[in-house]
Design brief:
With 230 residues, this protein is mainly α. Helix content is 80%, strand content 0%. It is found in: Membrane.
Length: 230
């Protein structure tokens, strides 16, 4: 059985897309906020791999093609931003300082918790890029001496949590301005949070898309500085 899956070109691709499709269907039918399609897909794939006794390397060999779509998908996020360019120009400084505050909050919280729990430098820098997109986060983690595989997992968890609870957090603190909501989701939970922002509205989606790129660049610089703190 394992040999069959290792020789299959589309095994990993099929179960990944199928699991995500089932996640979308479950959320549509049940309408429960915590039923995030990405989270459900991750759980489903783990269960399938364990039941069929297929190791990750075998699965990834046929699922890696999905990763090639990450770059064009990210580029496509520029479309809603272009459509809201005038709004961005009118609120440039608010947007800039909003993203800056989000990046500093992310890096500062990681430093505070790492210090509190006595994490090693390697563990600390592994967590620093938790709120930026995977493509940038892996590079930052490797450059600083972190464990890139754990960084990927942390980035995914951060994105899923932001997607699930981000909207409720904004409502809890009375944040209803579309620009502020979009910036918070994009800065805190990268592309997965942006998917939620696009569901909330065009303005939220555009600001969240902008946050991915700008917060990524700021984190590259900021993480290098914060890495020296511990």
């Amino acid at each position: 059985m394992k040999e069959f899956f290792s020789e299959s070109l589309y095994f990993g691709l099929t179960i990944s897309i199928g699991a995500y499709g089932l996640g979308l269907l479950a959320r549509k039918k049940l309408k429960w906020g915590f039923l995030n399609p990405l989270l459900l897909a991750i759980v489903a794939v783990i269960v399938v791999l364990n039941v069929l006794d297929v190791d990750y390397a075998t699965y990834n060999e046929s699922a890696k093609y999905l990763s090639y779509l990450l770059t064009p998908a990210t580029v496509c996020l520029a479309v809603p931003l272009y459509q809201q360019m005038e709004l961005l120009k009118q609120n440039f400084w608010a947007v800039f300082w909003g993203i800056t505050a989000g990046v500093l909050s992310s890096l500062g919280s990681v430093f505070g918790l790492a210090y509190l729990f006595g994490l090693s430098h390697e563990q600390y820098v592994t967590l620093l890029p938790k709120s930026i997109t995977t493509a940038i986060g892996i590079g930052v983690s490797e450059e600083l001496g972190g464990i890139s595989t754990i960084t990927v997992a942390v980035i995914i968890v951060t994105g899923v949590l932001g997607n699930i609870i981000g909207e409720y957090i904004c409502k809890m603190f009375g944040i209803r301005e579309p620009i502020a909501v979009g910036l918070s989701l994009g800065t805190a939970s990268h592309a997965v949070g942006t998917a939620k922002a696009l569901e909330l509205g065009e303005v939220q989606g555009a600001m969240s898309s902008l946050s991915i790129a700008v917060s990524g660049l700021m984190t590259v610089i900021g993480a290098s500085v914060f890495a020296t703190f511990l």
